[in-house]
Design a protein that fits this description.
The chain is an alpha+beta fold. The chain has 29 helices and 16 strands. It is extended. The N terminus and C terminus are likely disordered. Keywords: Coiled coil. Belongs to the IMPACT family. One of its GO terms (biological process) is regulation of translational initiation.
Length: 695
């Protein structure tokens, strides 16, 4: 029969239990956020906050936490809204504040750690912070119904309030009036009218606080696994049914009976088990038959089955039912015509134990089902939050006549989000769908496998997607997708190389303003000219011709190395040299084209230095070190490697260094010859006078 439909008014009506849950959530979220924020401001004063963030130790740990996804992209944006600015504690939610207190405020973890409930006697500040987190999980455990009965509410309210008040006292010791003010406010919360909209917001924040905490989902999984194991172990509790045969001369010959049964049913043991199962109450399962003494090991699936087993055992019905199987004419023949008595023995304590185990297993299974539901909710909330948090940044439109380019950027953590980004982008700006090209590239770091997932798409504009991806690699941008929408009045081929300047400028501007963590120092210098030079003038400028020197090849175990060198005067020319060099298809298809440059900036009286590995780990760094050591300037050196499939270990650095050093020496020799060959008029005149006197 179909169940009656739920009454919506019954589900949504206010109740004391629902109000209890709402008030406790409000105490945790609103009270907790303000109190923990005040604590953070006392430990790290707001005027010192940015200096603390930029301390090398702190900044590197922040980056590590971001890499491990402890700090989310949105929390990172709260800390660093742009590349050159810092966030304020008033912009931080309770989740981020808790992470900062735990990791950067020199607090010693409680003896049991941050994730366990401290002992009642431990009233230190770290212990109270751990309590807040622990009680948060207790409140969140009631999230499905959003209800708390009065006794549980009073218990949790007192514990959370006491912990919060001790935290307030910790940073307000000289100011008792502030402590009293907080105590009054918390007591007032018990009777204040409830704002439904505000309570929903607080509940959402509580969910996010729990889900953002990697420990929460991990705890759910661990507890679920523990309960699953417990259920399995509990279900394995057995009731042993001992079968005995007795006569005057041979009081027990169970061994012979066992042998006979094994021989008779060796080809079909399942039929014997089925026969025995049919003789047992419904709900009992034959787990095994122990040979030698004929012990039936049973497990029960219900309490009723155990009751039935006990009743039938005590009444003798069980013995009669089993005798039909174990007292056949063939078995009686083993006793040579003597009278045989068949008996069954069960330890009643085993039945009681099995009953207790069954009840415990049912309770554990129920808890496991609840945990599985919560784990699923946590995963769903995480996914929902991921989609909800999908924030697309739009760059400035770069225009040149009728041609327009605009970059868009979104923080992503999964390849599955690419389609979501495009759907959201087209919904946000329908003009994107009408673009001539929508070029894109993403770069995602997989912390578990310690690898990058990268992909790009030219959308019909040859090599442009690859260039965007290369740009993301150079800036070391990660967990990001960049989409460049291009509206061209002419074809990409007719626009030529200048279109890549449009794309580079739009992507650079967006990366620098979005707050995404990138290598900014070198990139800013790299694109200084692009950023400030009008594109109309850029098109008129001719790309200078470069004389590229090519070194001798070095071969070792099927790998080939060759160095190339060119004189340059700006960072922009590095790309121009690389483009010129890669017109040679063999070089373009090489496994690696690592490079380094060192350029002297006359205006700033400093060097622009950069190295790029192109996948050959430390290759670019070694080349840059070589340029520094030899004091080479205004030069780019490229080493091409065609990998032969055999790993060379450190020998590869020897070959990289050798071919690059030889080419640098060749350049140095050529420069010295040019210097010697250059004619100084005064020097020539002096030489002529000396030669005349000599004559």
């Amino acid at each position: 029969m179909a169940s009656a439909p739920a009454d919506p008014s019954e589900i949504l009506r206010s109740s004391t239990e629902k109000n209890n849950y709402t008030r406790l959530t409000r105490l945790l979220i609103e009270g907790g956020t303000f109190i923990l924020r005040e604590l953070l401001d006392k430990i790290i004063p707001p005027h010192q906050f940015k200096h603390v963030l930029m301390l090398p130790k702190v900044h590197s740990k922040l980056k590590l936490l971001k890499k491990k996804k402890v700090i989310t992209p949105l929390q990172w944006k709260s800390l660093f809204p742009t590349v050159t600015s810092w966030g304020k504690s008033t912009d931080f939610d309770i989740t981020l504040i808790f992470k900062l207190l735990r990791n950067f405020c020199s607090l010693t973890p409680p003896p049991k750690g941050w994730d366990e409930l401290p002992d009642d006697k431990d009233l230190t500040l770290p212990a109270d912070l751990a309590r807040i987190k622990y009680y948060r999980n207790d409140v969140y455990a009631h999230n499905d119904k959003m209800e708390l009965d009065d006794s549980e509410f009073q218990n949790l309210w007192k514990r959370i309030k006491d912990a919060l008040m001790r935290i307030v006292q910790h940073y307000n010791r000289p100011n008792p009036s502030a402590v009293l003010k907080w105590e009054t406010a918390i007591e007032k919360l018990l009777t204040d009218p409830l704002d439904i909209k505000k309570s929903h917001e607080d509940n959402d924040k509580l969910k996010i606080w729990c889900i953002d905490d990697p420990q929460t989902l991990s705890d759910l999984k661990d507890e679920n696994a523990r309960l699953k194991d417990q259920v399995t172990r509990l279900e394995s509790s057995l009731v042993n049914v001992h079968c005995n045969w007795r006569s005057r001369m041979q009081w027990m010959i169970a061994g012979s009976v066992s042998t006979l049964l094994i021989l008779n049913y060796k080809d079909d043991p399942e039929s014997l088990i089925n026969m025995i199962s049919d003789a047992l109450p419904v709900g009992l399962v034959v787990k095994s038959i122990v040979a030698g003494s004929i012990v039936l090991q049973l497990t029960s699936t219900s309490d009723e089955a155990l009751n039935d087993l006990l009743t039938r055992y005590q009444s003798g019905q069980l013995r009669e039912d089993l005798a039909k199987i174990f007292m056949t004419e063939e078995i009686k023949a083993l006793f040579d015509g003597q009278d045989v008595e068949f008996s069954v023995e069960i330890c009643e304590e085993e039945i009681e134990n099995a009953r207790r185990v069954l009840i415990s297993a049912a309770e554990a299974e129920k808890k496991r089902e609840e945990l599985t539901k919560k784990e699923g909710l946590a995963q769903a909330l995480k996914k929902t939050k991921l989609t909800t948090d999908l924030n697309i940044f739009d760059g400035e439109i770069v225009e040149d006549g009728e041609n327009r380019v605009q970059a868009h950027l979104a923080v992503i953590t999964s390849k599955d989000q690419v389609e979501e980004v495009f759907a959201e982008l087209k919904k946000k700006d329908p003009g994107v769908d009408e673009a001539t090209h929508n070029i894109w590239a993403y770069r995602i770091f997989d912390a578990e496998r310690n690898v990058y997932h990268e992909h790009c798409d030219d959308d019909g504009d040859d090599t442009s997607g690859a260039r965007v991806l290369r740009f993301l690699r150079r800036t070391n941008a990660m967990n990001v997708i960049v989409v460049v929408s291009c509206w061209y009045e002419t074809t990409a081929d007719e626009l030529g190389e200048v279109r890549f300047k449009y794309i580079q400028k739009s992507v650079l501007d967006l990366l620098l303003t979005s707050g995404i963590e990138i290598r900014t120092s070198k990139i800013k210098k790299y694109f200084e000219e692009i950023k400030y030079t009008p594109f109309e003038k850029m098109k008129e400028q001719e790309i200078p011709k470069f004389e590229i020197l090519h070194g001798e090849t070095i071969e070792d175990r099927k790998s080939t190395f060759q160095a190339h060198l060119a004189d340059i005067t700006s960072r922009e020319q590095v790309d121009q040299v690389l483009d010129e060099l890669k017109k040679d298809r063999k070089i373009a298809k090489a496994t690696y084209n690592m490079w380094a440059c060192r350029i002297y900036d006359e205006k700033k009286k400093s060097y622009i230095e950069e190295g790029y590995d192109d996948g050959e780990n430390l290759g670019g760094e070694r080349l840059l070190h070589l340029l520094q050591r030899s004091d080479a300037k205004n030069v780019v050196i490229i080493v091409t490697r065609w990998h032969g499939g055999i790993h060379l270990g450190n020998d590869r650095f020897k070959h990289i260094n050798k071919c690059a050093s030889d080419l640098l020496q060749r350049r140095k020799t050529a420069e010295s010859r040019t210097s010697t060959a250059s004619t100084d008029p005064k020097s020539t005149a002096t030489k002529k006078k000396k030669s005349k006197k000599h004559k």
